[in-house]
């Protein structure tokens, strides 16, 4: 007879525990809800619609902070989780700090002991916490203060400030075996990307907007003065036979738009290459034509050293432009998952949130080029468009006709997001 009361008590206990967690979005507001204690899965509710989401590998959902976190940071996971997961998190931190020489770091030292001794043998000043890292350390009287640049900036140890990754030398270094002699070299025809070789070290460089690398003078120049560009611009590939977009060369940032047999030279934004296969400007690692192994350039380049989105990036979550996609980097491995519909990933709060809360969604169209079809510039859609960044020139499409325009003020540039001319000091890409 005692069995029945025991079962009743057990069922009530289970019911009480389950009642703490939301199982559907029927009677709750928009937001993120845990599906259990110390669980990697959580529920996203948007306008009454439910979507189940998973944290990246080795992380669990932190209900108080509303993002995925290490187990040892989540109270519900208990001490056991902390012991099991601490080594993973600690290794990530220590790998970055090893760029600075400090104290004894034997295998028995804990991560906390390592951090306490960072500034012990250093003069007062600012130091990078790793090669091409967004984190840096301020040492004052032997005491460290750990800071991080705003996304997507990287700390520049030479100029002692946060800056864009492409402007920092240590972020663009390539193994010296690819530099036979000092000077500038390019790996593709009619491209705005080139490598500057100095003392056996190659640094990746980008020409300013509208310019390409001219091997004849070993510097950036107008396309009309570059033989590789002028030959192709006079008679673009297949122009007159088939309308479309055609690359000027292998892994090139320049391309030709052919419409009714008339070629128009166009350029991808700084840092992007034209993918003839996908008919869009994209990051180099997403463009088949930029495959280093088949290009013949840098024959000794090892596949294991090829650039990926997670190369030289700390473990964590990163927003992929102003989109629902989230990049998870764990020890160099990449995984991509998505936020619920109508939400984007916010790198500051590390949660899926509304677009107006995201820094990347507030920036100019420089970060949206990958997801914008180049077809929007062929005047099939009426409106105002710009083919380059930070430029006074823009186009007006009306009834299929392309009408060129220019901002009247010499200090003004065209803002695609505002669809008007604004002062250049207001745009991030013009700084």
TrEMBL record:
GO terms for cellular component: external encapsulating structure; extracellular region. Keywords: Chitin-binding, Developmental protein, Disulfide bond, Glycoprotein, Repeat, Signal. SUPFAM superfamilies: Invertebrate chitin-binding proteins (SSF57625). InterPro entries: Chitin-bd_dom, Chitin-bd_dom_sf, Chitin_bind-dev_reg. Residues 81-112 are annotated as: Disordered. GO terms for molecular function: chitin binding. Residues 22-79, 116-173, 176-231, 236-292, 307-361, 376-431 form the Chitin-binding type-2 domain. This is Chitin-binding type-2 domain-containing protein. One of its GO terms (biological process) is eggshell formation. It holds the Pfam family CBM_14. Residues 1-19 form the signal peptide.
């Amino acid at each position: 007879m005692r069995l029945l009361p025991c079962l009743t008590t057990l069922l009530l206990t289970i019911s009480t525990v389950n009642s703490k967690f939301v199982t559907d979005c029927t009677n709750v507001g928009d937001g993120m809800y845990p599906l259990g204690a110390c669980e990697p899965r959580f529920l996203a509710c948007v306008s009454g619609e439910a979507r189940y989401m998973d944290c990246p590998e080795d992380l669990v959902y932190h209900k108080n902070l509303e993002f995925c976190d290490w187990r040892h940071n989540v109270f519900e996971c208990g001490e056991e989780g902390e012991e099991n997961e601490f080594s993973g998190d600690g290794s990530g931190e220590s790998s970055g700090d090893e760029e600075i020489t400090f104290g004894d770091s034997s295998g028995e030292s804990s991560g906390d002991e390592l951090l306490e001794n960072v500034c012990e043998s250093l003069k007062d000043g600012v130091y990078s916490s790793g090669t091409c890292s967004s984190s840096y350390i301020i040492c004052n009287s032997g005491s460290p203060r750990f800071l991080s640049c705003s996304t997507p900036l990287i700390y520049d140890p030479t100029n002692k400030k946060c800056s864009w990754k492409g402007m920092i030398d240590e972020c663009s270094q390539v193994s010296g075996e690819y530099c036979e002699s000092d000077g500038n070299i390019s790996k593709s025809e009619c491209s705005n990307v080139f490598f500057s070789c100095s003392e056996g070290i190659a640094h990746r460089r980008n020409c300013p907007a509208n310019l390409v690398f001219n091997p004849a003078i070993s510097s950036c120049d107008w396309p009309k003065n570059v033989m590789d560009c002028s030959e192709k611009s006079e008679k673009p590939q297949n122009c007159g036979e088939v309308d479309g977009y055609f690359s000027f060369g292998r892994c090139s940032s320049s391309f030709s738009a052919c419409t009714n047999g008339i070629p128009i030279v166009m350029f991808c934004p700084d840092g992007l290459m034209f993918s003839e296969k996908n008919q869009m400007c994209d990051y180099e690692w997403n463009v088949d034509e930029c495959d280093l192994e088949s290009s013949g350039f840098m024959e000794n380049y090892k596949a294991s050293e090829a650039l990926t989105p997670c190369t030289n990036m700390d473990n964590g979550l990163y927003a992929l432009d102003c989109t629902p996609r989230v990049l998870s980097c764990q020890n160099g491995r990449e995984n991509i998952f998505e936020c619920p519909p109508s939400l984007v990933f916010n790198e500051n709060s590390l949660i899926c949130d509304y677009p107006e809360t995201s820094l990347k969604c507030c920036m100019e169209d420089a970060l949206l080029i990958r997801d914008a079809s180049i077809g929007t510039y062929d005047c099939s859609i009426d409106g105002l468009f710009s083919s380059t960044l930070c430029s006074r020139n823009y186009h007006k499409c009306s009834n299929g006709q392309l009408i060129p325009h220019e901002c009247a003020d010499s200090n003004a540039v065209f803002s695609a997001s505002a669809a008007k001319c604004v002062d250049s000091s207001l745009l991030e890409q013009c700084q």
